[in-house]
Amino acid sequence: xxxxxxxxxxxxxxxxxxxxxxxxxxxxxxxxxxxxxxxxxxxxxxxxxxxxxxxxxxxxxxxxxxxxxxxxxxxxxxxxxxxxxxxxxxxxxxxxxxxxxxxxxxxxxxxxxxxxxxxxxxxxxxxxxxxxxxxxxxxxxxxxxxxxxxxxxxxxxxxxxxxxxxxxxxxxxxxxxxxxxxxxxxxxxxxxxxxxxxxxxxxxxxxxxxxxxxxxxxxxxxxxxxxxxxxxxxxxxxxxxxxxxxxxxxxxxxxxxxxxxxxxxxxxxxxxxxxxxxxxxxxxxxxxxxxxxxxxxxxxxxxxxxxxxxxxxxxxxxxxxxxxxxxxxxxxxxxxxxxxxxxxxxxxxxxxxxxxxxxxxxxxxxxxxxxxxxxxxxxxxxxxxxxxxxxxxxxxxxxxxxxxxxxxxxxxxxxxxxxxxxxxxxxxxxxxxxxxxxxxxxxxxxxxxxxxxxxxxxxxxxxxxxxxxxxxxxxxxxxxxxxxxxxxxxxxxxxxxxxxxxxxxxxxxxxxxxxxxxxxxxxxxxxxxxxxxxxxxxxxxxxxxxxxxxxxxxxxxxxxxxxx
Length: 564
What we know:
It contains 16 helices and twelve strands. The protein is of the alpha+beta class. The strands form three sheets. It has a five-stranded antiparallel beta sheet, sandwiched between helices. The two termini are about 35 Å apart.
């Protein structure tokens, strides 16, 4: 759990408990005042005995202080734990004063000590509760002993009639065992409540840790649509900053974006709903989240709220697509070799025959032009067959340690030379050293294919511009550069990312899911195998290739391969 958020939760819990404690204290004080007024009549207070007036004053003072606490409790600068300590300490002295004026150890108000000790355990700590139990025992012992000494030594006590003290005072044979067992009970209550509080806190913490660390996200809202619980995974999946304060806030405020609209509507529904929502990640790949929402009922079959369980199914979707694509590729691979051989041999014979016929001197110029077209189309057909074989034929990946920066410089030079007369501007942004382990020839083919696609996609612009840049990154965040890559603890997650960026017409959203399929192309002269071959090579290197594109603004391809 995030430490900052954990502190905020503890503070909110203490705030709620302290507020309930203050209301309880105020209620008790008001009831005490009412009891005094009823017991001694509803006449003028100044006619009451002095000890009753003193007890009445203590209760009025307690009410005043309690109201002051309630006014201060919402102040952000206030330390709630220190306020609780101060309150309980004041309560102990007020309870001792009430005991003094209402009969010492026989006063009904001595039971308030137990409430203060329980409050100390709940609001502060078990150690504080033990200290207050000891303080209460000492203060009550002092009151009880001075009652007995006053009765036997005949010295008066302030505001207490002598007859009243003599009537209530007990001998030391009774006082000492009584005080001993009373103190023992106070400390037993302190120990028992502290142990119970620790066990409850441990159980609560254990449940929270289990919920916080499950792989599914969890959000619980009440019937008013306000969040009452969430876990870390839910924040990560929904891309909500961890420091965001969610407790008590409306779900419509926290998840206000258009991406969350279906989730908000599902949480308003009283039926069980299963749906998928898509969250953009910012590095070329969307996060697909399966959301299950259902009502939450209590034991009386009354609806308490709604619960949403979030499950990241992006990997499952990706695996399904990979399996489907692999099956297609295997089928194509099986038939491609036989097709290629069946086409290639007669194609070579046709081309050779046409070249022989073209060499006849008496041939007309128009016939020679037609034969040139046949030869040109034969070459084009041969290239298609060659690319198809390249795609279908299994080739071993011959990895070696190689500087990717040098390879990208070669690719950039090839692209510039091929488009030399077409006003091409290829920007290369790579560090001098970018070593990784891969098959240089195959990886070079990937970036030549991507570079050619980028340049052709930008064709028609006044100036064709393509940017190629590379950096170290992790598998989970291929679009985010790692500056100090040597500090990455999990080596298998370290890799190299190459971005190929163009500023052309972009790819239509409907076409994005098909761009790696064989023979899918939007070009008038393309055959649709360049990206398929690139995808296959990257898969064989245990890497990934992602794309981010907007119509009219261009495309950005991310190629990530492990560094070793």
